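Morning!

As promised:
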Amino acid sequence: DAKTTQPNSMESNEEEPVHLPCNHSTISGTDYIHWYRQLPSQGPEYVIHGLTSNVNNRMASLAIAEDRKSSTLILHRATLRDAAVYYCILRVTGNQFYFGTGTSLTVIP
Amino acid sequence: EPEVTQTPSHQVTQMGQEVILRCVPISNHLYFYWYRQILGQKVEFLVSFYNNEISEKSEIFDDQFSVERPDGSNFTLKIRSTKLEDSAMYFCASSEDRANQPQHFGDGTRLSIL
């Protein structure tokens, strides 16, 4: 199984950067690393994905280790609206995503 | 920005009844998915659908479940003879026609079995 390991919870002060880590030591060579988040009472929301190089978009940055066995999602300035469960996801097979337990991010005003 | 829409937002059904959950995927997407999330638990993959047939399914997706794309816009999940343990949030998602592409999720249907 393409499993991932994340801390259960993290806290951040508002307007400070947040680094959310993920370990994925069993990742295969062609699998992208996906990050999603789930706000309360909503469906998972796509955040970012990447293969080898670091990636940036309007929501976040993704830093991928050179050996691809770990990655870090970076929120540059946390806001209260960023409080959510963040999932680091790999494909299991085909297009089947495996959601772990994720990291519950608390943003402190 | 285009989005996946799901109806109804909340469905209450008596145990043993059939229920159909509806989804309208993003219009140019070709892969469609159903996931479920029992209260307080992980999001679990149920099934993926491509080119009018099931491409993958999990152990959860047994004979009680079926999916269909009845027309060019809707994607449905049918649960026959519902059980109490089918109570969950059901999320529909869609993605473009290439593997490893992001999946875009709807806000889900809360299914309550009484």
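Chain A touches chain B through 25 residues (CB under 8 Å).

Hope this helps with the figure draft.
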